[in-house]
Amino acid sequence: MSGFVLRTGVWFLALLALWFWLAPWLAVPVGALAGAVVGALFPGWVETIERSGTTLVMVTSLPVVAEGGRVGALAVETSYLRFAYGLPLFPALILGARASRPLPKVLAGGVLLMPFQAWGVCFEWLQQALFLGGALAVQRIGFAAWQVELVALGYQFGSLALPTLMPVLLWLLFDRRFAASLFMAGWLAGAAKRQS
Question: The whole model's pTM is what?
Fold first, then answer.
């Protein structure tokens, strides 16, 4: 068990540095997916999706009042890094567990994590549109109170739970044998303590 934790920690630190370096390019498909989802759910909102490094910006057609009474278009932004730190965690778990055929699993896991990263980006954009857009934008959005609460819940889930939960669940799915042996060893150790 301690060997697995140590290996996973070392791999995580190494992969974290690699991920941080690759993040501007990894943000491109996540931003495109998030923009497509918001555009499909709210037709006419998305004017364009822009990226600067790891910052993803959605320029909307929603009106917002600027200083001096001028009306402009609302642009909301978020950092890809806030929702994707699970990307280096997943391969660290696979490599720490010494899984068989790790490369296909790591690549598949990276692709499978993208929708969950896009979830976080979408809800961050929606949250900003609702809470930072001002009365004019909120009026145009026309959400009921329960929908606003749903956006807040989706944002919390997407920023706090999904980035860490999904890599672990995918690891358990891809490396069931090791995970089962790890849990069995823990259970046996606990049973032995209770017996003595």
Answer: 0.84
